[in-house]
Design a protein that fits this description.
about 300 residues, alpha/beta, Rossmann fold, Elongation Factor Tu (Ef-tu), domain 3, 2 domains, six-stranded antiparallel barrel, five-stranded parallel sheet, 9 helices, elongated
Length: about 300
Protein backbone atom coordinates (compact mmCIF):
# COMPACT_ATOMS: atom_id res chain seq x y z
CA UNK A 1 0.00 0.00 0.00
CA UNK A 2 1.25 3.45 -0.94
CA UNK A 3 2.02 5.57 2.12
CA UNK A 4 0.10 8.72 2.95
CA UNK A 5 0.22 12.07 4.69
CA UNK A 6 -3.03 12.45 6.55
CA UNK A 7 -5.16 14.95 8.40
CA UNK A 8 -8.47 14.52 10.18
CA UNK A 9 -11.26 16.70 11.45
CA UNK A 10 -14.69 18.08 10.62
CA UNK A 11 -13.39 20.79 8.26
CA UNK A 12 -16.77 22.51 8.31
CA UNK A 13 -16.46 25.48 5.99
CA UNK A 14 -12.93 24.51 4.91
CA UNK A 15 -11.95 27.94 6.23
CA UNK A 16 -8.59 29.74 6.28
CA UNK A 17 -7.39 27.76 9.28
CA UNK A 18 -8.22 24.48 7.59
CA UNK A 19 -6.59 25.69 4.39
CA UNK A 20 -3.31 26.25 6.22
CA UNK A 21 -3.39 22.63 7.44
CA UNK A 22 -4.33 21.31 4.00
CA UNK A 23 -1.52 23.22 2.33
CA UNK A 24 0.95 21.52 4.65
CA UNK A 25 -0.58 18.09 3.97
CA UNK A 26 -0.25 18.57 0.22
CA UNK A 27 3.34 19.85 0.55
CA UNK A 28 4.44 16.92 2.70
CA UNK A 29 2.70 14.36 0.47
CA UNK A 30 4.45 15.71 -2.62
CA UNK A 31 7.80 15.69 -0.79
CA UNK A 32 7.33 12.00 0.12
CA UNK A 33 5.70 10.91 -3.10
CA UNK A 34 2.73 9.86 -0.95
CA UNK A 35 -1.03 10.20 -1.08
CA UNK A 36 -2.67 13.13 0.69
CA UNK A 37 -5.71 11.99 2.68
CA UNK A 38 -8.33 13.87 4.69
CA UNK A 39 -10.55 11.97 7.13
CA UNK A 40 -13.56 14.27 7.39
CA UNK A 41 -16.67 14.07 9.56
CA UNK A 42 -19.86 15.00 7.75
CA UNK A 43 -21.36 16.47 10.94
CA UNK A 44 -19.42 17.98 13.87
CA UNK A 45 -18.89 15.07 16.34
CA UNK A 46 -19.89 17.21 19.32
CA UNK A 47 -23.37 17.42 17.78
CA UNK A 48 -23.56 13.70 17.03
CA UNK A 49 -25.52 12.85 20.18
CA UNK A 50 -26.76 16.38 20.86
CA UNK A 51 -28.43 17.72 17.71
CA UNK A 52 -28.66 21.48 17.47
CA UNK A 53 -32.01 23.23 17.41
CA UNK A 54 -30.82 25.33 14.46
CA UNK A 55 -28.87 24.59 11.27
CA UNK A 56 -25.16 24.20 11.89
CA UNK A 57 -23.42 23.29 8.62
CA UNK A 58 -21.29 25.70 6.66
CA UNK A 59 -20.60 23.00 4.09
CA UNK A 60 -22.65 19.83 3.53
CA UNK A 61 -20.45 16.79 2.91
CA UNK A 62 -20.63 17.04 -0.88
CA UNK A 63 -19.45 20.67 -0.82
CA UNK A 64 -16.77 19.87 1.74
CA UNK A 65 -15.43 17.00 -0.38
CA UNK A 66 -15.31 19.21 -3.47
CA UNK A 67 -13.41 21.95 -1.61
CA UNK A 68 -10.91 19.54 -0.06
CA UNK A 69 -10.10 18.02 -3.45
CA UNK A 70 -9.83 21.40 -5.15
CA UNK A 71 -7.29 22.37 -2.51
CA UNK A 72 -5.12 19.43 -3.51
CA UNK A 73 -6.23 16.52 -1.31
CA UNK A 74 -6.03 13.25 -3.24
CA UNK A 75 -8.50 11.25 -1.18
CA UNK A 76 -11.35 12.27 1.13
CA UNK A 77 -12.74 9.62 3.44
CA UNK A 78 -16.04 10.54 5.09
CA UNK A 79 -16.39 9.67 8.76
CA UNK A 80 -19.79 9.11 10.38
CA UNK A 81 -20.09 9.87 14.06
CA UNK A 82 -22.20 6.88 15.14
CA UNK A 83 -22.15 4.74 18.28
CA UNK A 84 -19.28 2.63 16.97
CA UNK A 85 -17.12 5.66 16.22
CA UNK A 86 -18.04 7.32 19.51
CA UNK A 87 -17.00 4.23 21.48
CA UNK A 88 -13.70 3.56 19.68
CA UNK A 89 -10.62 4.24 21.88
CA UNK A 90 -8.27 6.75 20.23
CA UNK A 91 -5.39 4.26 20.02
CA UNK A 92 -7.60 1.71 18.27
CA UNK A 93 -8.76 4.34 15.78
CA UNK A 94 -5.15 5.39 15.20
CA UNK A 95 -3.79 1.88 14.57
CA UNK A 96 -6.71 0.48 12.59
CA UNK A 97 -7.81 3.47 10.52
CA UNK A 98 -4.84 5.81 10.29
CA UNK A 99 -2.03 3.22 10.16
CA UNK A 100 -3.50 0.05 8.70
CA UNK A 101 -6.17 1.40 6.34
CA UNK A 102 -4.49 4.64 5.28
CA UNK A 103 -0.81 3.80 5.61
CA UNK A 104 -0.06 7.15 7.22
CA UNK A 105 3.60 8.01 7.71
CA UNK A 106 2.95 11.64 8.59
CA UNK A 107 0.00 13.56 10.03
CA UNK A 108 -0.80 17.27 9.94
CA UNK A 109 -3.16 18.59 12.61
CA UNK A 110 -4.18 21.73 14.43
CA UNK A 111 -3.41 22.27 18.13
CA UNK A 112 -7.01 21.43 19.11
CA UNK A 113 -7.12 18.02 17.44
CA UNK A 114 -9.25 15.42 19.24
CA UNK A 115 -10.50 12.00 18.16
CA UNK A 116 -11.70 8.69 19.56
CA UNK A 117 -13.91 7.93 22.55
CA UNK A 118 -14.71 11.03 24.60
CA UNK A 119 -12.38 12.97 22.29
CA UNK A 120 -9.49 11.60 24.35
CA UNK A 121 -7.11 11.57 21.39
CA UNK A 122 -5.82 15.09 21.96
CA UNK A 123 -2.49 16.45 20.79
CA UNK A 124 -0.22 15.14 23.61
CA UNK A 125 -1.60 11.61 23.20
CA UNK A 126 -1.34 11.83 19.42
CA UNK A 127 2.32 12.86 19.72
CA UNK A 128 2.92 9.80 21.92
CA UNK A 129 1.21 7.51 19.40
CA UNK A 130 3.22 9.07 16.59
CA UNK A 131 6.53 8.34 18.32
CA UNK A 132 5.43 4.82 19.19
CA UNK A 133 4.46 3.94 15.62
CA UNK A 134 6.94 6.02 13.66
CA UNK A 135 4.46 8.58 12.35
CA UNK A 136 5.72 12.13 12.16
CA UNK A 137 3.21 14.64 13.58
CA UNK A 138 3.14 18.21 12.27
CA UNK A 139 1.21 20.81 14.27
CA UNK A 140 -0.02 23.83 12.34
CA UNK A 141 -1.01 26.95 14.25
CA UNK A 142 -4.37 28.60 13.77
CA UNK A 143 -5.19 31.74 11.78
CA UNK A 144 -6.35 35.06 13.23
CA UNK A 145 -8.16 37.86 11.44
CA UNK A 146 -8.26 41.26 13.14
CA UNK A 147 -7.09 39.54 16.32
CA UNK A 148 -9.88 36.92 16.30
CA UNK A 149 -9.15 33.22 15.78
CA UNK A 150 -10.74 31.75 12.67
CA UNK A 151 -13.07 28.90 13.61
CA UNK A 152 -16.14 27.16 12.24
CA UNK A 153 -18.17 28.14 15.30
CA UNK A 154 -17.14 31.78 14.90
CA UNK A 155 -18.18 31.76 11.24
CA UNK A 156 -21.52 30.22 12.17
CA UNK A 157 -22.13 33.06 14.62
CA UNK A 158 -21.36 35.63 11.91
CA UNK A 159 -23.82 33.97 9.53
CA UNK A 160 -26.57 33.74 12.17
CA UNK A 161 -26.25 37.54 12.32
CA UNK A 162 -26.35 37.87 8.54
CA UNK A 163 -22.73 39.07 8.38
CA UNK A 164 -21.77 37.39 5.10
CA UNK A 165 -18.86 39.79 4.53
CA UNK A 166 -17.29 38.82 7.86
CA UNK A 167 -17.95 35.15 7.19
CA UNK A 168 -16.30 35.46 3.79
CA UNK A 169 -13.17 37.01 5.30
CA UNK A 170 -12.81 34.08 7.69
CA UNK A 171 -13.66 31.46 5.08
CA UNK A 172 -11.32 32.92 2.49
CA UNK A 173 -14.07 32.82 -0.15
CA UNK A 174 -17.74 33.93 -0.33
CA UNK A 175 -20.31 31.87 1.57
CA UNK A 176 -22.83 30.04 -0.59
CA UNK A 177 -25.72 27.59 -0.38
CA UNK A 178 -27.18 25.26 -2.99
CA UNK A 179 -30.61 23.77 -3.57
CA UNK A 180 -33.36 23.05 -6.06
CA UNK A 181 -35.88 25.63 -7.27
CA UNK A 182 -39.35 24.74 -6.01
CA UNK A 183 -42.81 26.24 -6.48
CA UNK A 184 -43.71 29.08 -4.14
CA UNK A 185 -46.64 31.42 -3.54
CA UNK A 186 -45.81 33.59 -6.60
CA UNK A 187 -46.04 36.77 -4.51
CA UNK A 188 -42.80 38.03 -6.04
CA UNK A 189 -44.31 37.63 -9.51
CA UNK A 190 -47.29 39.74 -8.46
CA UNK A 191 -44.94 42.43 -7.14
CA UNK A 192 -43.05 42.56 -10.42
CA UNK A 193 -40.01 40.75 -9.03
CA UNK A 194 -40.48 37.02 -9.75
CA UNK A 195 -38.32 34.98 -7.43
CA UNK A 196 -36.90 31.48 -7.45
CA UNK A 197 -37.60 29.67 -4.17
CA UNK A 198 -34.59 27.57 -3.17
CA UNK A 199 -35.07 24.38 -1.12
CA UNK A 200 -31.89 24.19 0.96
CA UNK A 201 -30.39 21.34 3.00
CA UNK A 202 -32.08 21.53 6.41
CA UNK A 203 -28.68 21.48 8.15
CA UNK A 204 -27.27 24.36 6.08
CA UNK A 205 -27.10 27.84 7.61
CA UNK A 206 -29.23 30.53 5.97
CA UNK A 207 -28.02 34.05 6.87
CA UNK A 208 -31.02 36.33 7.52
CA UNK A 209 -31.52 39.52 5.53
CA UNK A 210 -31.64 40.93 2.02
CA UNK A 211 -28.49 40.45 -0.06
CA UNK A 212 -26.78 41.11 -3.34
CA UNK A 213 -25.92 37.63 -4.62
CA UNK A 214 -24.45 35.80 -7.56
CA UNK A 215 -26.23 32.71 -8.85
CA UNK A 216 -24.67 29.76 -10.65
CA UNK A 217 -25.83 26.28 -11.67
CA UNK A 218 -25.14 24.05 -8.66
CA UNK A 219 -22.96 21.76 -10.77
CA UNK A 220 -20.41 24.54 -11.30
CA UNK A 221 -17.38 24.64 -8.98
CA UNK A 222 -17.92 26.38 -5.64
CA UNK A 223 -16.46 29.88 -6.14
CA UNK A 224 -13.12 30.28 -4.39
CA UNK A 225 -11.85 33.26 -6.39
CA UNK A 226 -13.34 36.10 -8.42
CA UNK A 227 -12.76 34.35 -11.75
CA UNK A 228 -15.09 31.54 -10.62
CA UNK A 229 -17.94 34.10 -10.60
CA UNK A 230 -17.57 35.28 -14.21
CA UNK A 231 -20.39 33.07 -15.53
CA UNK A 232 -22.68 33.98 -12.61
CA UNK A 233 -25.93 35.94 -12.80
CA UNK A 234 -26.46 38.85 -10.41
CA UNK A 235 -29.50 38.80 -8.16
CA UNK A 236 -31.29 39.88 -5.02
CA UNK A 237 -31.84 37.31 -2.28
CA UNK A 238 -34.23 37.48 0.63
CA UNK A 239 -33.69 35.07 3.52
CA UNK A 240 -36.40 35.38 6.13
CA UNK A 241 -39.95 34.63 7.14
CA UNK A 242 -41.80 37.03 4.75
CA UNK A 243 -43.29 39.01 7.67
CA UNK A 244 -45.37 41.31 5.42
CA UNK A 245 -47.43 38.33 4.28
CA UNK A 246 -46.82 35.67 6.96
CA UNK A 247 -46.14 37.56 10.22
CA UNK A 248 -46.40 34.43 12.38
CA UNK A 249 -43.98 32.31 10.36
CA UNK A 250 -40.72 31.22 11.98
CA UNK A 251 -39.02 29.07 9.37
CA UNK A 252 -36.48 30.86 7.18
CA UNK A 253 -36.95 30.63 3.43
CA UNK A 254 -34.59 31.58 0.63
CA UNK A 255 -35.85 33.30 -2.51
CA UNK A 256 -33.84 34.91 -5.29
CA UNK A 257 -34.71 37.48 -7.95
CA UNK A 258 -32.35 37.13 -10.91
CA UNK A 259 -31.44 40.24 -12.89
CA UNK A 260 -31.39 38.10 -16.04
CA UNK A 261 -33.96 35.35 -15.65
CA UNK A 262 -34.06 32.25 -17.91
CA UNK A 263 -37.42 31.04 -19.17
CA UNK A 264 -37.81 28.30 -16.56
CA UNK A 265 -36.02 27.51 -13.31
CA UNK A 266 -38.31 24.98 -11.62
CA UNK A 267 -36.47 21.80 -10.71
CA UNK A 268 -33.05 23.25 -11.48
CA UNK A 269 -30.33 23.14 -8.84
CA UNK A 270 -28.74 26.53 -8.19
CA UNK A 271 -25.94 27.88 -6.02
CA UNK A 272 -26.54 31.22 -4.33
CA UNK A 273 -23.31 33.09 -3.53
CA UNK A 274 -23.74 35.80 -0.88
CA UNK A 275 -21.78 38.94 -1.80
CA UNK A 276 -23.04 41.81 0.40
CA UNK A 277 -25.89 42.40 2.83
CA UNK A 278 -28.22 45.25 1.90
CA UNK A 279 -30.51 45.33 4.95
CA UNK A 280 -32.45 43.34 7.50
CA UNK A 281 -35.80 41.86 6.59
CA UNK A 282 -38.73 43.89 7.91
CA UNK A 283 -42.51 43.93 7.88
CA UNK A 284 -44.12 46.54 5.62
CA UNK A 285 -47.56 48.08 6.00
CA UNK A 286 -48.56 47.16 2.47
CA UNK A 287 -47.39 45.22 -0.57
CA UNK A 288 -46.90 48.57 -2.31
CA UNK A 289 -44.46 49.72 0.35
CA UNK A 290 -42.60 46.42 0.01
CA UNK A 291 -42.45 46.80 -3.77
CA UNK A 292 -40.93 50.28 -3.45
CA UNK A 293 -38.31 48.94 -1.04
CA UNK A 294 -37.43 46.09 -3.38
CA UNK A 295 -36.89 48.66 -6.13
CA UNK A 296 -34.45 50.51 -3.85
CA UNK A 297 -32.71 47.23 -3.00
CA UNK A 298 -32.41 46.46 -6.71
CA UNK A 299 -30.79 49.84 -7.39
CA UNK A 300 -28.34 49.31 -4.52
CA UNK A 301 -27.32 45.87 -5.77
CA UNK A 302 -27.06 47.12 -9.35
CA UNK A 303 -24.73 49.91 -8.21
CA UNK A 304 -22.55 47.38 -6.38
CA UNK A 305 -22.28 45.20 -9.49
CA UNK A 306 -20.74 48.16 -11.31
CA UNK A 307 -18.28 49.17 -8.60
Amino acid sequence: MRSSVLTLGTFDGVHRGHQRILKKVVERAKARGARSIALAFGMPPKLGHNPSAKPVLLTPLSDKTQLLKRLGIDEVQALVFDKKTASTPPETFFTRRILQRCGAREMVVGPRVAFGRRRAGKLPFLMTLGKRHGVRIHVVSGVKIMGKPVSSSGIRDLLYQGDVAGAGRHLGYPYSIAGKVVHGSRRGHKLGYPTANIAVDTHAILPPGVFWVNVLPANKPIPLKSSDLRPATHGLCNVGTRPTFTPKAKKLTCEVFLFKRPSSLYGRALRVVFRRRIRSEKRFKSSGALKRQIARDFRTALRWTRS
